[in-house]
Amino acid sequence: MQLPAAFISQTKALLGKEWEAFEQALRCEPPTSIRWNPQKTNANRLPPTVFEPESPVAWASNAYYLRRRPRFTLDPLFHAGCYYVQEASSMFLEYFITKYVLEAAVTLDLCAAPGGKSTHLSAMLPEGSLLVANETVRPRAAILLENLIKWGNPHTVVTNASAAEVGKLKAFFDVIVCDLPCSGEGMFRKDPVAIAEWSERNVECCAGRQRQIIADVLPALKPGGLLIYSTCTYNREENEDNVDHICQDFGAELLEPPRRFMPHKTKGEGFFIAALRRSGEPERPPDAAPRRMETTLTLPFSQWLSAPGEYVFFSENNAALAFPATRYREYLYLKKSLRMLSAGVALGEIKGKDAIPNHALAMSTALSETAFPRWELNRDAALKYLRKEPLRDIPTALPSGFVAVTYQNHPLGFVKNIWSRANNLYPQAWRVRMMVND
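and the corresponding structure tokens:
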């Protein structure tokens, strides 16, 4: 690993006598860590899978280091949303959320792709919270959408908007998490491209861009609201200096000393995180009056959810949707303000005489276990399904129509049983291309 001379000089000044230990750590194999989805798995009875956890991540619940890095693509439980592969240092977000967010909150993950912090927030926010996961770059937003659909929390909205567009939602959010684009120094041992692209000029540009993003989005945070600022880089310009800027220029209060994760001190990559409180008098966001619901579309869709009374059912563009009733007002306000990619539970659509279930319904934790017949697959058959290959040997006991296919009792999606064969309804864009022998 050939580090830039300017980076060496800058980081030596930051670390002093710790430089040699830091440099040695950069040459070691980075650890692999995952978080289990507590809404789909029980941490005390983890399902068998393609790997074994080695030890817990000290600062996060349901999180483990692995003894080796397996091919996650070939584990059906990964595609079922039972866990997320995430760098351990960034899981420290949990410390600030569990300490400062003590009641249901409307929360924004601003730069959310690919979905690590969004899935983490979804798992740890207080019950009744609403998570808005936003990504500015459209291709990255598609990846975020896929990961959050698989995670399955119905109290989630995915949007594709700029920080300035989000900032127009005046005093709307109780919590804003900003894991900002940065120079990526913390990813050096994982990503050689980050080393090649590093320069002092790029650090300066990143720091300026981060300040602009904060200035754009901060009006959307309620006075007294919580701002989480984080990067995966080491330098002061993008970290402490920008936190000082937020305090001085916007009157925010730093709640406690920021945390800096370094690979020679903790088992994880480089990461910086700080928690701040926005000052000012509370403002009331604009009202969004609920519209009249289309009750003709609640059946059979409402029967597909385990607790239909907790949702509002409606249709958009011939698709049936369900959204948590306690957050429907926020949904309407977001819908008229931002480009929305998904919200709540996409139930399905009517085609002719059929009510066709959406794949997102199979992934949702709101799905009723009795809504559809279930077909339990072994690993080979599950991987065939995920590759969108035809499935044979359909159990004769299964009725015709839509069937939820499962692996270790976790839904993977739907097939349509037409007796002679089962039409594979797995999304074409998500199909697995890797083979076992690859």
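(Above: one complete record from the training split.) The CA atoms of residues 51 and 70 lie 7 Å apart.
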